[in-house]
Amino acid sequence: MNNEIVKKYLAKLNINENIQTIEDISNLMCLHQKTFPFSSLKVLLKKEISLNLEDIYDSLIEKKQGAYCFEHNKLFYEVLKELGFDVDFYLARVVNNTDNEVPQTHRFTLLNFENEKYLIDVGIGFRSPCIPVKFTKEFSFSHLGFSYRVIKEDNVYLLQSKKEDKIFTMTKFDLNRCYESDFELAHFYSHKHSNAIFVNNLVLSLINEKEIRSLRNNEYFKIYENYQEKSTFNCFDEFKSILSSDFNISFSDEELKLLYNKYSRI
């Protein structure tokens, strides 16, 4: 079944050639992140979110309802595994450049390739790298002026981005073994707990070659290499149009109105 899902996934992205190199994986990451949006909408609508691979594929790709880290990164992990890459999965803490004590509520993938370690993360929203990020002190260019690295400090690994010499730490993690049950537990917190970010905020993002599209509640950002634009929407039709045309998200009008009425004024 995984083999069939991977075949359908690659077909959706119009990928026919073999994926064998780091550059091939980077290309796949870029295609994934400009096609399938990061989204908290299912969480806000209180939909049951399954981590079964078939359900992830159906929700994200067939129904076009977006996904968050536990879905995006599981799908991408299974794709790489089916393609023959040496991959494993782990949990991280999303710290967003703070020293806050936060739970491990983020899934990512570790790639072992030609005696080097790389972090792969297509599920951290608008800050997601579009390359496998090497474990090294040197930053590697990804997209739109953003570079990334993974370093170790005080026995903890940090995923960091850099743009215009400003360094931003997104996640902290160790490499203690994880199991699918750990993801189920973290996933339950992330889409059910009253304090969880995605339970309280409308979040959407897509990354393409020209811009990063990032929507949070009623603020819509388009982030370019050298500047960004910020706007808000003034009516439901505008909100619906942005979700459909800019993010390729598909929900019923009734569901979209619920989201608009509650979160567009936060």
UniProtKB/TrEMBL annotation:
<dbReference type="GO" id="GO:0016407">
    <property type="term" value="F:acetyltransferase activity"/>
</dbReference>
<protein>
    <recommendedName>
        <fullName>Arylamine N-acetyltransferase</fullName>
    </recommendedName>
</protein>
<comment type="similarity">
    <text>Belongs to the arylamine N-acetyltransferase family.</text>
</comment>
<dbReference type="InterPro" id="IPR001447">
    <property type="entry name" value="Arylamine_N-AcTrfase"/>
</dbReference>
<dbReference type="Pfam" id="PF00797">
    <property type="entry name" value="Acetyltransf_2"/>
</dbReference>
<dbReference type="InterPro" id="IPR038765">
    <property type="entry name" value="Papain-like_cys_pep_sf"/>
</dbReference>
<dbReference type="InterPro" id="IPR053710">
    <property type="entry name" value="Arylamine_NAT_domain_sf"/>
</dbReference>
